[in-house]
Amino acid sequence: MRSHFPRRLFRRPRWLVCLALATTLLCLAMPPLVTTAAASVAAIHTSQSQNGSDQQGRAAYAERDYPAAAEAFQQAATQYQAAGQAVRAARALANLSLSHQQLGQWTDAETAIGAALALVPASAEAPTDVWSSRAQVLSIQGRLYFSQGNNSKAAEVWAQAANGYGQAGQPREQAHAQVSQARALQAAGFYERALSQVQAALIVKPADQITVDALVTYGDLLRLTGQTSQAQETLTEALTLAETLELPGAISSIYNSLGVLAEAEGNADAALENFQAANSAETSLELGLAAQESQLQLLVGQADWALVTEMLPTLTESIQAQPPSRETIHIHLVFAQTLLDLRQAVDTALAQRETTAAEALDQAVEVGSVESPIDTPPGPAEQPVEQPDPLLALVEVLPPGDTIATLLLGAYGSAQTLSDIKAQTYALGGLGELYSQTEQWDIAKAQTLDALNLAQGANLPDVEYQLQEQLCQILQNTDEQDSQEAIKACRAAVGTTNL
Fold first, then answer.
1. Topology annotation, domain 338-347+390-497
2. Helix, strand or coil, per DSSP, at residue 128
3. CB atoms within 10 A of CB 113
4. What residue spans define the domains of the chain?
5. At what angle do helices 66-82 and 86-102 cross, to 10 degrees?
6. Which of 33, 183, 187, 202 has the fewest CB atoms found within 10 Å of its own CB?
7. How far apart are alpha carbons 435 and 448 in whole angstroms?
8. CA gap 349, 389 in Å, rounded
9. Interatomic CA distance for residues 248 and 229, integer angstroms
10. Cα dihedral value 226, 228, 230, 235, nearest 10
11. From the DSSP assignment, how many helices (H) and strands (E) are in the chain?
């Protein structure tokens, strides 16, 4: 059985990984919006409008010392409020929320962002700096919802941020918020609405990273809506601009998108070439691992057992060396699903081999029962050199089920810490599939039901129908008294796909 849970969410848009790695510093860089981490740090340290605590917080955040950053931003907010500087206090509180988000302290993050918004209320009479600051605070609130897997709420908040930037007369920041909104809508499955937002962000296309991000998002959405030729043109345009601006992370992401597009069009060679280019262009460990996962998934789909065998041990070791975290949770989930797919593919290939061998034996027996002419004995011949069997070689290096379970359980724990319901459902669904493969049906049923309950509670229909389909197949292998339950689950799966 193959359910492909994380593929639809985690593998395809690699900006989900990029967002965790890069967007945070963009949020920290208040006006003007900057487009690279280096520029962000420079803007932080050269600003003359910040007090000492604020500067300390930004420096600590840049060094990923989030506890120190949170402490400094809290002090800065208190100092700004005591001085009657509400706008600066709001910014400090927003950055305090951002620091809490990095630490997984969600209640504190929500409290800080709520306090920040209260200091910069929406008002038609509000001056430009209030609108700008409110939009920045809303952008960080959108990130908070997005990090927790609440894509619809994130899209709503980023729409408010885009409006705020419009009121402040900041068109590039507005475009950035529109792209973020489009990505949240894409993650929620609302492709047409996402297209509308990203098209609005591309009305003006200056040569900057925001344009690159918008083009990549637009290209991915065009592919998802079946407009493959336009997707190719858009992604090629994005690649040209990213190369001009020397943005290695963006270049890697674009090559990955081009690989996914080529794979969707059935051009496996071009897909593999693009995935390899994505890996070689990348400077980030997390994005490099994501590119290698794309290559591995393609090779599994092609049943290229020799290359899979060559690639699998090193990639497994690299991913296991990265503990589940905000940056690696999606990588762990995708890799676990790839291993599940690989186990299923290997089992199918071995079964097919046995069937073929049995059929050949039956034919040989049948032929042997018919009298045949006597042939002249053949002369001596060279013995063929025995070639290693790539499928059996793969079986030797295939990670055991315990490895997959460890990846999924680690990802589930991290998803709980992050309050990311969608990632939790994928982890539990993956465990359900793993136990299905080992025919431990009762455990598979329990894990899948837990995942399904989470998906239904969080209103995730795109995940829900996949889990219902999995539950349907599991129940067909359990006790006879579950037959009616299986029929109900199968009907529910069909009903969800028709929503």
1. 1.25.40
2. helix
3. 27
4. 338-347+390-497
5. 160
6. 202
7. 10
8. 13
9. 25
10. 120
11. 25, 0
Q: Residue 50 gets which letter from DSSP?
A: S
Task: Give me the amino acid identity at 221.
Answer: L
- Residue 58's closest CA among 98, 90, 110, 86? 98
pTM listed for this prediction? 0.73
For each of the chain's 499 residues, which pLDDT tens digit applies? 333 344 433 333 443 344 333 333 334 433 222 233 222 322 233 344 568 899 999 999 999 899 999 999 999 999 999 999 999 999 999 999 999 988 878 889 999 999 999 999 988 888 998 999 999 999 999 999 988 778 889 999 999 999 999 999 999 999 999 999 999 999 888 999 999 999 999 999 999 999 999 999 999 999 999 999 999 999 999 999 999 999 998 999 999 999 999 999 999 899 999 998 988 875 667 778 888 888 898 899 889 999 999 999 999 999 988 876 666 888 899 999 999 999 999 999 999 998 888 887 777 776 665 555 555 556 565 656 566 789 999 999 999 999 999 999 999 998 888 778 888 999 999 999 999 999 999 999 999 999 999 988 887 777 888 899 999 989 888 765 556 666 666 776 666 544 4
State the SS3 of 166-218. Answer: HHCCCHHHHHHHHHHHHHHHHHHCCHHHHHHHHHHHCCCCCCCHHHHHHHHHH
b vs e for 25-61, b when ≥16 Cβ sit within 10 Å of the residue's Cβ?
Answer: bbbbbbbebbbbbebbbebbeeeeebbebbebbbbbb
Quick check: 33 and 15 in contact, CB under 8 A? Answer: no
